[in-house]
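Let us walk through a complete example step by step. Step one is to write down the protein sequence. Step two is to encode the small molecule, zinc ion, as a SMILES string so that its atoms and bonds are unambiguous. Step three, shown after the inputs, is the structure prediction itself.
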Amino acid sequence: MAITDKIYVKNHRQLVSQIERSFPKGAFSGATMDILYQGEGLEKLDEATRDRVLDFAEDFLDCDCEASPHCGCPERKFVRYLLELREQGLGQQAIVDVMSDEYMLYAYPGDMLSFLDDSVRTLEAAERLAEVDGDPAAADRMRALREALVR
Ligand SMILES: [Zn+2]
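Step three: the predicted structure of the complex.
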């Protein structure tokens, strides 16, 4: 399961009762993106919540794909966002705290740690592959990315 399947909307029950429509807890569930992030329920949310919900929609659900937001872009952007926080030196708990402040989302720190570890391993594998392929420039790029994550 991808990390984006383990990102949840905070105060889920409260939000469901505010917009008077049920949606799944997972932030990247198709129905959540339709009902919470793009639906007409937005104006029923209290202001603080609405701001964060809108921020999330603007930052991650803003592509022009025909299938948007069901095109994979929101998930890819969010993964990039997590890795950028990691590159800034944040640990798994701090990353969860930041996404909670910014977008009212949460994840379990253990899941976040696994995701970060997997990302490093994926880069290691890509680095080795590039070396085998005789592409030192690509290998260097992967190494730099990996080192940014484990710093
Ligand atoms: Zn897209």
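Step four is interpretation. Helices lie at 12-19, 30-37, 47-60, 73-87, 92-103, 109-132, 136-150.
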